[in-house]
């Protein structure tokens, strides 16, 4: 019954499985990128005022590209950041979350057989969505530099992977899941290669652009490579900015009218706009985003400071838990930090490497014992170390962090990277820390 293109993706994702496990065990969830604090009060007040508005127009269909007021407000917001009158309302398109925008980009510009380049590890939708439209996804690795404690991209690998079939290149900065912030030099190196491939479009997924730590410089792709600005679509998220991800307001902007027209065409002929009253709320709230907030210069500054506090707490405390010989990797920005659990493999109980129906092949008295070996020494395991460790933490420590195998085009069987979200209240991380320490 299902279309062939859907069949490979019918199995529940790890995101869904984790939500089910959390509901089942009441585990402390520091895995998912979903804030557990309330959105700012000024949004609630703006929403209340909007609902009391007697103007019936707000209750009817809006323009597929989003109401003018919101697009104008977004243009002002980014022009303030860029310190120039660069963007106009017509450069923007509003969608049902950034995920919808990503899907729209693939829908509008990919043909059967086109190739898409992503940087592994990557946000899974950046890979799955192109496959729906018959494209091939090619990966370029992000590699962790132990000396610099930073993630880097291999420019030579990118140069070798791009070809005449490449139609779309996807960047994400700050990156989900690595926390990498692309540098101006990296963008320029990519741009120099892209100049030789005039048909390639760039989708810059910048949904975490307000979360750059240690007062580091943040540069956008179109700023580093202005000569490519007519081929770049930048993606953003108001749900992320305002810590209200369930409101589902994503957007894209580009200086190329043809690229925006492509998104408009998809939107007009599918979901036909987003919740209109909320668009007015977002427009007004963007005007307040730079006002002083809870002792900080602005709401964005306050949010970034809170996320950085979480990152620093994890770096300092989670790396010193007795019995947890894992490595917390460097993080420059965004919602997440990665952990390498390779040295923890021998401590994982053997049963967590196997599906229940396959545990019968293991001697029963060994199932609840640490595997006490390297991953490659296990007998035909069903799960990679990251997935096994995820289950181990949930059911033995009542704490959940995210395995990352689904963040790769072709994940290694022995993948050992786990993702911790920075989007929770600090008390949540203290609670998780106590649980991990208590069970030693």
From TrEMBL:
GO terms for molecular function: kynurenine-oxoglutarate transaminase activity; pyridoxal phosphate binding. Keywords: Aminotransferase, Coiled coil, Pyridoxal phosphate, Transferase. It holds the Pfam family Aminotran_1_2. Residues 141-168 form a coiled coil. Residues 29-426 form the Aminotransferase class I/classII large domain. The keyword Transmembrane does not apply. GO terms for cellular component: cytoplasm. Its cofactor is pyridoxal 5'-phosphate. The keyword Ribosomal protein does not apply. This is Pyridoxal phosphate-dependent transferase.
